[in-house]
Amino acid sequence: MILLAAVQAAPAALAAPPQLSGQAAAAHVLNRLAYGPAPGDIERVTQMGVARYIDSQLHPESLELPAALSERLAGLDTVQRSSGEVLGDFLAVRDMVKDETEDAKAMRREVLARINNQTAEARIARAVGSPRQLEEVMVDFWFNHFNVFSGKGQVRPLVASYERDAIRPYVFGSFRDMLGATAKHPAMLFYLDNYLSKAGGLNENYARELMELHTLGVDKGYTQKDVTELARMLTGWSFAPRQLVARNETFRFDPKRHDNGDKQWLGRVIKPQGQAEGEYALDVLAVHPATARHISYKLAQYFVADEPPPALVERMAQTWVASKGDIRSVLKTLFASDEFMSPEAQGAKFKTPYQFVISAARAGNSAMAEVRPVLGALDRLGMPLYGCQTPDGYKNTQSAWLNPDALSRRIGYATTLAQGVDAAVVQAALGEAVSERTQGIVAASPQKIRTAMLLGSPDFMQR
C-alpha cells in the first residue's frame, strides 16, 4: 500500500510548476521585457506566442523602427553629432560665463536646453515608440549599472554619446566589450575622475566603483590594497577636452602619466605593460565568478523580484561563466526559467517613476510630442532623467519608490496625462493586467475620471 501510494503521488511531485499562459502571459512579458502594453500589444503577443515574442526582442535588429520615430530621431542633432562637436558647443557657451549681456545669457540657455532636451527626447521617444522594447529596457538597466551624472560639468554634453556609443551597441552582446567602452568613454573618465589619475597623483574613484559596482560587487574578496593597485594599473587612461573637440579623440593613453611600477592585484603580480595592464584587469573582472553572480542577481532582481530566487541567480551565473559574459545568453536563461513565468512573478515588481511615466504613455497611445513636461514629471517623482548623482544609479526596488508622497505625485501625473485619453483605449491596452476589482471600481466611476483611475491604480503601479 505504501509503495502504491508513492507511485500514485510521484506524478504530482514531478509535475512542472504552474506557468502563466494566454493573455496573462502576454501581459506579463510586456510588463517586464517592455514598458507595458500599448493598444493591441496583448492580442498580438498572445497570437504570436510568448516564446516567439521573447526571441524577437532578444534580436531587435529584425524589428524595423516606425518611420515617424526614425524621422524624429534624425532631427535631433545632439544625438547624431559626435561627442566632440557637442562638447565644443558646451565649452563655447561655458567660456562666455563672464559675459553678462542678455544675448550671451540667452545663447547659454539655448545651447544647454538643446543639449538637455534633445538627449532626453531621443531616450523617451524610443522608450515609448520603439518596437525594440527590450533593447530600450536594457539601455535603462545598463545605464543605471554604469551610471554617470549629467549634472557634473562636462558630463552633460557627453551623455548622449555615452548612451549611444558605450551602452546601446552592447546591451545584448559581450559584457567585456561594454565594460571597455564605458571605461574609455570621456563621460565616465570625467564623472569618476580617472582622467585626473596619474603616477604621483592617484585617484581611486573609478577603480573602486569598477570593482564594487560594475563587476565583482561589494565585499567580494578583495581589499583596499586591490583597489589602490587597480587604480595604479589604470593611470594614464584619460582624455583631453581640446583634442576631443578638435579631433573627436574620445580616449587616450598617456604613458607619461602611467605608474610603471610592479603591482599586486587580486593575488596576481602585474608587471609594467602600460595600457595593457588596465585591459588585462577588465578581462579578468568581466568573467570573474563574483561578477557573474553580482550582475545575474541584478538582472533577476530587475526582471523577476526584488529578492530574486537564489537558484535562478545561480543558473544565470553559470551561463555567464560558460558564455564568458554573453549577455544575450544570460537573458535567455532568465526568460526561459520557471521563476520568470511563474504566476507569483506577475505584478511582483513596483514600477520606478521612469517605468511608470513611459508605461502610462504607451497605454494611452501617447507619442510624447513635448519632452519638457515629461522631464518635469520625472523631476517631481524623484527620478530626473540622467540625474542620479551617485555611481550606483537608480534603484528598481519597491522600497526605493513606494511611499505616500510618491503615490500622490503619481496620481497627480496620471490625472494630468489622462486628459483627452479614452479610458476604453487604456483598459483594452492593459487587458488582464488590471484586476476585475479595479475594473469594477473604474466602471462605477464618472466617465471623466476613469482614465486617471486606471493609470493611478495599484494594478498599474505594478509590473
How would you portray this structure in words?
Residues 1-15 form the signal peptide. The chain is 60% helix and 2% strand. With 463 residues, the chain is mainly alpha-helical. The chain folds into 3 domains: 67-287, no CATH class; 289-345; 353-461, no CATH class. The protein is globular, with a radius of gyration of 24 Å. The protein starts with a helix and ends with a helix.
Count of domain modules: 3
Widest beta sheet: strand line-up? 1-2
Number of strands: 4
CA radius of gyration = 24 Å
Average per-residue pLDDT, rounded, comes to 94
Structural class by sheet pairing and helices: mainly alpha
Helicity, as a percent range: 55-70%
Uncertain regions spanning at least 5 consecutive residues:
1-13
The count of helical stretches stands at: 27
What's the overall geometry?
globular
Portion in strands: under 5%
Characterize the biggest β-sheet: 2 strands, antiparallel
Distance between the termini: 48 Å
Keywords: Signal
Organism: Pseudoduganella aquatica
InterPro entries: DUF1800 (IPR014917)
Pfam families: DUF1800
Task: State the gist of this model.
The chain has 27 helices and four strands.
